[in-house]
Amino acid sequence: MTSELSLYGPILDTFDDGFEPFEEVRTHSEKSYRKSMDLVFKKRSTGRLTSVEVKVSDWRRALRQAALNTSYCHYNYVAVTHNVANRVDVEAFRELGVGILGIKKGECKVIIRPRLSLPLKRDKNAVLRQVQRPRRKAHGKGKGLL
User: Fold this and answer.
1) For the chain, what is the largest distance between any 2 Cα atoms, rounded to a whole number of angstroms?
2) What's the distance, CA 30 to chain centroid?
3) Rounded Cα–Cα distance for residues 27 and 67 (Å)
4) Radius of gyration of the chain from Cα atoms?
5) Residues with Cβ < 8 Å from 65, sequence gap 6 or more?
6) Residue ranges of the alpha helices (H) in 15-131?
7) Which of 41, 92, 141, 143 has a Cα at 20 to 30 A from 21?
8) What is the rounded average pLDDT of the residues 10-19?
9) Taking the mean position of all CA atoms in its chain, how far away is CA 143?
């Protein structure tokens, strides 16, 4: 059975060397509400942030999470197995401006590109404070998503 963690490698490989990757980046939008984004990538040249919510099967939950991430990051994706990617409601993703990454046999493919979001300054800054230093370097050449 596929685990969320097993999908991370192909996602990391997809982003090129122009990005700094971070795992489990916490968000704090309200005192009582706390969540973390599975993966966040900071583009070195622009400082723009990209989030990726990774799910093995529950794409609806991942879409809700990615939609919330639009107040934190400029680009937002849901990553799922290729089989699940073929069953999602594509129009819901387009409406919310969230992209889809499909993963099959260790390869990550962009199914839908996300729309540029304009994160709230205070929320984006909360994420930026956590990603000042890379905790994990991407491996592989990467294909460059944005």
Assistant:
1) 41
2) 21
3) 13
4) 14
5) 35, 37, 53, 78
6) 59-69, 82-85, 90-96, 121-130
7) 92
8) 88
9) 15
| Domain positions in the chain | 4-130
State pTM to two decimals: 0.83
pLDDT digits (tens, 9 = 90+) for 54-98: 999 899 999 999 999 999 999 999 999 999 999 999 999 999 999
Alpha helices in 1-146 (DSSP H): 4-14, 59-69, 82-85, 90-96, 121-130
Under the banding of pLDDT at 50, 70 and 90, the label for residue 144 is very low
In Å, how far are 54, 133, 135 from 80, measured between CA atoms? 6, 27, 24
Q: What are the tens digits of pLDDT across the range 91-125?
A: 999 999 999 999 999 999 999 999 999 988 878 88
CA distances to 25, 37, 98, 145 from 131, rounded to whole Å, are 8, 12, 22, 19
4-130: what fold? Trna Endonuclease; Chain: A, domain 1 (3.40.1350)
CA distance 20 to 102: 21
